[in-house]
Specification:
By secondary structure, the protein is of the alpha/beta class. It has two domains: 156 residues, Rossmann fold (3-Layer(aba) Sandwich); 89 residues, no CATH class. It is 46% helix and 10% strand. Bound molecules: 6-O-phosphono-beta-D-glucopyranose. 6-O-phosphono-beta-D-glucopyranose binds next to helix 2, helix 4 and helix 5. It is an enzyme of class 5 (isomerase).
Length: 258
């Protein structure tokens, strides 16, 4: 048997990653589960109600593709509120984490959106992408370690609801990032923390992301490989933001050599 073990030999041809990669860091929403759609719909409903109340019938609605991808996707919740409002030249007081959903503050709006997300997840449940489960299972069988790295404070609930919590060795999410004072994506802090907890340098870790800010984090953190996951037809944008490769589904990497 070779010094690195058979798992090492097998994975080079079967999981589409360079041999230096020993750990896989997966974003959640849009990569492991289809919950990016739930978030996008909740953001739209919340911002459209807010803009309508503020500007009347002539308001410019939140665009679930452009506004979501550029200002909200992948960022921690309050950063998403701030970044979108800034794009419309709107300033609101910060407020507090426990502001009621009716409060006209950054956190009030964030809490309003979160109520919509939780309602949808509780009603419909979450099913993981089948190709993602197959791919994560394959990388673990090849001896790599795995982490989920998400801005979402709902990460644990979504993993449990989807039945995939046991597939992740480490979780760095919106809750743990806040506890540890880690900056959110597009900063690489949460991905760096996950690599550290798994015991690897960034160069030995691959980042799997569907969000443009996640690509930026992968590039700024000098990770060993960055996989862009294109669920919405933004492959070129993902490449421009630093993807080494772009796939439509994680299972597309199975059987691919790099
Ligand atoms: O509001 P949460 O569940 O903490 O999630 C924050 C963000 O988490 C990211 O994973 C999603 O891409 C965003 O859409 C979402 O807004």
């Amino acid at each position: 048997m070779p010094a690195a073990g058979w798992g090492h030999m097998v994975r080079m041809t079967q999981i589409g990653l360079p041999s230096r990669v020993r750990a896989c860091l997966f974003d959640l929403d849009g990569v492991l589960t289809p919950t990016a759609l739930v978030h996008a719909a909740a953001w739209k409903q919340m911002f459209d109600d807010f803009l309508h109340d503020r500007e009347g019938d002539g308001f410019r609605p939140f665009d679930s593709t452009d506004d979501y991808d550029n200002f909200v996707d992948g960022r921690p919740r309050a950063d998403g509120v701030r970044t979108f409002l800034a794009s419309r030249d709107i300033e609101l007081p910060e407020g507090d984490d426990d502001d009621p959903p009716s409060a006209p503050t950054v956190h009030g709006l964030g809490n309003r959106k979160n109520e919509l997300v939780l309602e949808k997840i509780r009603t419909d449940g979450v099913t993981a992408y089948e190709g993602s489960v197959r791919y994560v299972t394959a990388v673990r069988a090849a001896g790599l370690r795995t982490a989920v790295v998400s801005s979402s404070a709902n990460t644990r609930d979504v993993l449990v609801s989807a039945g995939i919590e046991h597939l992740m060795d480490v979780r760095v999410d919106g809750v743990t990032a806040k506890e540890q004072g880690l900056r959110g994506k597009p900063k690489p802090d949460t991905y760096l923390e996950a690599a550290k907890q798994l015991g690897f340098d960034p160069g030995q870790a691959a980042v799997f992301e569907d969000a443009l800010v996640g690509m930026d984090a992968g590039r700024e953190g000098s990770f060993g490989y960055v996989v862009g996951v294109d669920r919405v037809g933004q492959a070129d944008e993902l490449r421009r933001h630093g993807a080494d490769t772009v796939v439509k589904d994680l299972a597309d990497l199975i059987g691919r050599s790099v």
